[in-house]
Amino acid sequence: MTRPRIGFLGLGWIGRHRMQAIAESGHAEIVALADPSPEAVETAAELAPDAARGATMEDVLAARPDGVVIATPSALHVPQVLQALEAGAAVFCQKPLGRNAAEAAQAVEAARRADLLLAADLSYRHTAAFGALMAQVEEGALGDVFAADFTFHNAYGPDKPWFYDKAQSGGGCLIDLGVHLVDQALWLLGADDLTCTSASLFSGGGPVGPDGVEDYCVASLRAPSGTAIRIACSWTLPAGREAVIEAQLYGTKAGAEVRNEAGSFYNFSASRFEGTAARPLVSPPDDWGGRAAVDWARRLAEGEGFDPDTERLTVLARVIDGIYAAAH
């Protein structure tokens, strides 16, 4: 197994964190760093001092990488993904892959045609706690899951202005945080699609303007199996802690839950419920933040090309589109 050559475009906190995780894994060689901010490049270069440095995707591709990690504003994702794929580089992209299903489908189709590995940073799948929840489902330990609740409230909200510009972000807290919740629902329930039956969006407690973005979303969805699903997500909600990140599954045999501990963005526990009894499944600590990126790098090192499961990124985007449509 040879180590692929990897370039990084977008070197804010998330980009650098994913870079460090891949570097420490040993699965890849870091050959190029690029960001419009020279300071961000210099900070990242402390982790990869021999990597070429620049500001654009062209600078990254000049190093002829085997793969590119993209952590830029959402409006740039698909054009940059297409640019990398056309140059023969696999891609690991921050979520959301596209601002809507049409954009996501364009990227997925390009990866399929090029037979190149494409993945998005749906990082919560890689926590031990959500892994334990999936194991309960796969083992049939919950029976038939008939209801599921998913929640992600971030007390702070994003710190970059582009998140609040609909043209750049594609939306507010739903496409930023709710993308994880919808992905969890699709993944845990093994669903091919989800139908939104009702949705409400708010901005500052009132209606969302035509060019505005939501800071609170609640939606009801239904899986083809009939499972009823509720998602709720927000920015800057007065929830009494820094974050509320939870998932509950209720089945005909038992229930199960993932919950963040003490308002943490990083520490998760998982429990199984039988009647009034709760049995712990997983407790923190769990160093999970970079696992999705490391998994992509490992698969790339093993020579993996296009994965048909990547098509589910289009399904994910289509469900989010459906929630926005139902709310309007």
Task: Give me a quick take on this structure.
By secondary structure, this protein is of the alpha/beta class. The chain has two domains: 5-123 and 290-307, 3-Layer(aba) Sandwich (Rossmann fold), CATH 3.40.50; 128-286, Dihydrodipicolinate Reductase, domain 2 (2-Layer Sandwich), CATH 3.30.360.10. The chain is 34% helix and 26% strand.
Report the strand count.
14
Shape: globular
The strand line-up of the biggest sheet is 8-9-10-7-11-12-13-14
Tally of helical segments? 10
Largest sheet: 8 strands, mixed
Global Rg: 20 Å
How confident is the prediction overall: mean pLDDT?
Answer: 97
Descriptive keywords:
six-stranded parallel β-sheet, eight-stranded mixed β-sheet, nucleotide binding, 26% strand, 34% helix, 2 domains
Task: Describe how the helices and strands are arranged.
Layout: E1 5-9, H1 13-25, E2 29-34, H2 38-45, E3 52-54, H3 57-61, E4 67-70, H4 74-86, E5 90-93, H5 101-114, E6 118-120, H6 128-138, E7 145-154, H7 166-169, H8 173-189, E8 195-202, E9 216-222, E10 228-235, E11 243-251, E12 255-260, E13 268-274, E14 277-282, H9 291-301, H10 312-327
Parallel strand pairs: 1-2, 1-4, 2-3, 4-5, 5-6, 7-10
Antiparallel strand pairs: 7-11, 8-9, 9-10, 11-12, 12-13, 13-14
